[in-house]
Amino acid sequence: MKILVLAGGLSPERNVSLSSGAKVCQALRDLGHRVALVDLFFGLDGRQGSGEDLYDAPIPESFRTVDRAAPDLEQVRARRKTGGASAIGPGVLELCAGAEVVYLALHGACGEDGRIQATLDLMGVPYTGSGCLGSAIAMDKDLTKRLVSHLVTTPRWETVTVTRENREELLARTRLPVVVKPLDSGSSIGVYIAHTPQELDRALEASMAMGGKTVLEEYIQGREIQVAVLEDRALPSIEIIPKVGFYDYENKYQPGAAEEICPAPIPAEWEERIGRDALAVFRAIGLSVYARADFIVTPDGTPYFLEINTLPGMTPTSLVPQEAAAVGIDYPHLCEIIIRASLEARKEGR
Predict the structure, then answer these.
(1) Residue 249: what pLDDT?
(2) Of 202, 222, 227, 243, which is the most buried if we count CB atoms within 10 A?
């Protein structure tokens, strides 16, 4: 097949996305597909021709690893020679139109929020993962919780817009400890666990720097368990044990920073309930093909649903490939399953 892998983009998660895209591109090439890897934001910026040569181009080594810190997006913007306000680089849509399928290795804004999915739907171009509506809902942590809180257990939460005017009031009334997280970001970027008023104050300050739209979520003490859904079935769960702190951006993408155990060493009844809850969320918000749901499980076995990711990472340290491997699906064939299931979903209007 002729496959275009879209990665990068103008998101705090662009480096993670580029790493996912590089690994997907290589895996699909190894299976004999004709594959091009394109940065959504840069596209053909500074290149001559139609971009067909990208199908034979080597994968940049810089794409294969994830830096310890998220990128400075203003610096990224400044590097595009063609400038402009568009989040889609020159030639990208033409390249999409010329492919048999677009593999979305994007994370965060413009990748998981439904906008690129809607664009490709209007173009009649098939793509991987969930459709535009389910993607948009899942990206909004508040809306997701509102839709599924009657189906699964979720920590108490409040969604606020942090401003200079209400910061002191939020600081005074918010019960500690609390998890402070952006409404619509991933990879634990901008996530803080505040145990003291001073930590909460710093977290609220950081929230304002990210736009202010924030979820204040009850902190649940327990084991971090995540489970992927693939083709409407739950894969074996995986337990995350960071060596230092919590499962933040650095611990997610630096090799060896966290212990990841799959299948998770939990009782069978816990495994069954977590898988059932992941499927309930997946179906309730209309997702398709694959996703990954995140939980904290308390000592009594209660899974607290946190969020669901519609385009989970496919980097060398990512979790979904580990869960697939636990049932005998290697990385290249996982990519092929995602493509096949996505083509079926698009034909069925899902």
Answers:
(1) 41
(2) 227
| Side chain identity at residue 150, one-letter code | H
Give me the domains of the chain, ranges plus CATH numbers. Answer: 2-127 (3.40.50.20), 139-152+221-347 (3.30.470.20), 157-218 (3.30.1490.20)
Pairwise CA distance, residues 220 & 134, whole Å: 27
Q: 276-326, pLDDT tens digit by residue? A: 999 999 999 999 999 999 999 999 999 999 999 999 999 888 999 999 999
Map tokens 């990519």 to a residue.
Answer: 335
Q: Is the pLDDT of residue 186 over 60?
A: no
Kindly compute the dihedral angle of the four CA atoms of residues 323, 325, 329, 331, in this order, to the nearest 10 degrees.
90
**Which residue has 């994830």 as its token pair?**
66
| The token pair that represents 69 in the structure block | 């810190």
More confident position, 104 or 248: 104
Query: How much of the chain is in helix, strand and coil states, percent to nearest 5?
Result: 35, 20, 45
> Cα angle at 27 between 23 and 30, to 5 degrees?
140
Q: Tally the C-alpha atoms within 13 A of residue 167's C-alpha that lie toward its C-beta.
A: 16
At 290 the three-state DSSP class reads strand
- Return phi, psi of residue 260, to 5°: -125, 120
Task: Say what the pTM is.
Answer: 0.91
Structure tokens at 127: 């793509």
Q: How far apart are CA 105 and CA 20, in angstroms?
A: 6
Burial class (CB in 10 A: 0-12, 13-18, 19+), 173: exposed
Q: Are 278 and 293 in contact (CB under 8 A)?
A: yes
97-121 pLDDT, tens per residue?
999 999 999 998 889 999 999 999 9
Size (the chain), residues: 350
* DSSP-assigned states of every residue in 32-56: T-EEEEEETTTTTTT--S-SGGGGG
| Closest of 171, 158, 169 to residue 217, by C-alpha | 158
